[in-house]
Amino acid sequence: MVNKLFQRVDRVRRSTIATVTAAMLVGLEPAAAQACAELRLVPGGVVTQVTDGDTVVLDSGLVVRLIGTQAPKLPLGREGFPTWPLAPEAQKALEDLALNRPVTLGYGGEEVDRYDRALAHVFVATEENTTVWAQHHMVRQGLARVYSFPDNRHCLEQLFAAEATARTERLGIWTDPYYSVRAADRPAEILKRIGQYELVEGRVLLADRSGSRVFLNFGRHWKEDFTAVIEAPALRIFADAGLDPLTLDGALVRVRGWVDDRDGPRIEVTHPEQIEVLARP
Fold first, then answer.
1. Backbone φ, ψ for residue 249 (5° rounding)
2. What is each CA distance from 129 to 26, 27, 32, 138, 263, in whole angstroms?
3. I need a surface site. Which of 54, 56, 128, 194 has the fewest CB within 10 A?
4. CA 69 to CA 71: how far, in whole Å?
5. Average pLDDT for residues 89-105, to the nearest whole number?
6. Cβ–Cβ under 8 Å, residues 155 and 121
């Protein structure tokens, strides 16, 4: 089985930024350093608070969301919001790594979200005089999933590899049914996860274009079965990357995203990295 991310086939050429990045990330695993070679790095300061498994606060007051990952969520004052399984463990793991440690921030896309949080990769300077990429560390321990955006797509290849290893080794969240990879041929089970971020795996029965959209249909009853939908803006991102989702006809894939219910359970795909190709016919 081929476990290959359906992402850009063109290779971004390495520039002066790559050299600077490599020099700043002394001690970081070489493969991870290469994956993040295109980031704009800036000194971040010292971590004074770890809010949850994917958010820290710096001594400047800056709140940093660890872009590219989603850790189990805590209520954080939200009434009626449940604590996700392993959320306290994820918070503690990031706290053990980063609290009271200096960090470097790496920006590779949109830099601030609507909550005024910095969207950055976080590199922690450890007492052993090494640098640890916080996102990779959390995903590799099975305490976060890969969670990407169309305007923030750097450094994902290594994160996907780390997630795959953690899932194979059944670490952290990968032992809990709450985070199980859902089967595309069981739409009733996926419907129970409406409003949740899920990974869904199955074979594309038909990849079809209708107007400005592409539908990846995973069953014969298109108004009941699971579907991945790619809208026009996302199709432009696919085209810019030299990718055609219609070639996924018959492929075994893993799709990740937020589940909604529009003529059966579906996930809207906004960029290629939401689809991993596991095997082609």
1. -55, 120
2. 9, 7, 17, 19, 54
3. 128
4. 6
5. 97
6. yes
Long-range contacts of 174-178 (CB under 8 A, 24+ apart): 174/142, 175/142, 176/85, 176/86, 178/84, 178/85
The residue to which tokens 């490599």 are assigned: 22
CB within 8 Å of 172: residues ≥ 6 apart: 86, 89, 90, 141, 142, 143, 166
pTM: 0.87
Q: Is the domain defined by 181-279 classed in CATH 2.40.50.140?
A: yes
CATH fold for domain 4-174:
OB fold (Dihydrolipoamide Acetyltransferase, E2P) (2.40.50)
The residue extents of the domains of the chain are: 4-174, 181-279
Pairing of strands 213-217, 227-230: antiparallel
Residue 61 burial (C-beta neighbours within 10 Å; 0-12, 13-18, 19+): exposed
Mode of pairing for the β-strands spanning 265-269 and 227-230:
parallel
> Which residue in this structure is represented by tokens 């939908």?
229
